[in-house]
Design a protein that fits this description.
Layout (H helix, E strand, L loop, with lengths): L12 H9 L7 E5 L5 E6 L3 H12 L7 H7 L8 H10 L2 H14 L6 H7 L2 H16 L1
Antiparallel strand pairs: 1-2
Length: 139
């Protein structure tokens, strides 16, 4: 697939239990001693399962490269927090679930620790579970 957009649909079901188990878990961070002896925060150390999910999702047809536009279309702010996740869950629309998941997946690039927050707060679990449930009712 070579990173192209619009690959095959992803099997999100294989990650639901993993995301469920990661809720309220502590994610380890690297730390670095600064030149002046002050400890500086590094970055989260994600396990291979999380990194595999990110790679697969970005290459799948489920990834919405226009997620910001999709979220705005549903009048959802382009933010990852309890309020926006709750709004997405209430609307119950597949394009919106995938847009929120796309936002979460891309957030780490601009905000180190975003994936850790999404794991700990259960955002990844809620959204992937909703997508899987929706797909199962369509079959």
């Amino acid at each position: 697939m070579n990173g192209e957009i619009g690959g095959d649909q992803m099997d999100l079901a294989k990650y639901v239990d993993y995301f469920k188990s990661m809720r309220n878990r502590e994610i380890p961070w690297t730390s670095m001693d600064g030149e002046d002896g002050i400890l500086q925060m590094g970055y989260p150390k994600y396990d291979e399962q999380m990194l595999q999910f990110i790679r697969e999702f970005k290459e799948s047809s489920d990834f919405d490269p226009r997620y910001k536009k999709t979220l705005r279309h549903y009048h959802i702010r382009v933010k990852m927090n309890h309020l926006t996740i709750g709004q997405v869950m209430l609307v119950k629309e597949m394009p919106l679930y995938k847009a929120m998941l796309s936002l979460i997946v891309t957030a780490e690039q601009v905000d180190a620790g975003s994936w850790a927050k999404a794991l700990q707060e259960g955002y990844l679990y809620q959204v992937t579970k909703a997508i899987v449930s929706e797909e199962q009712t369509r079959v």
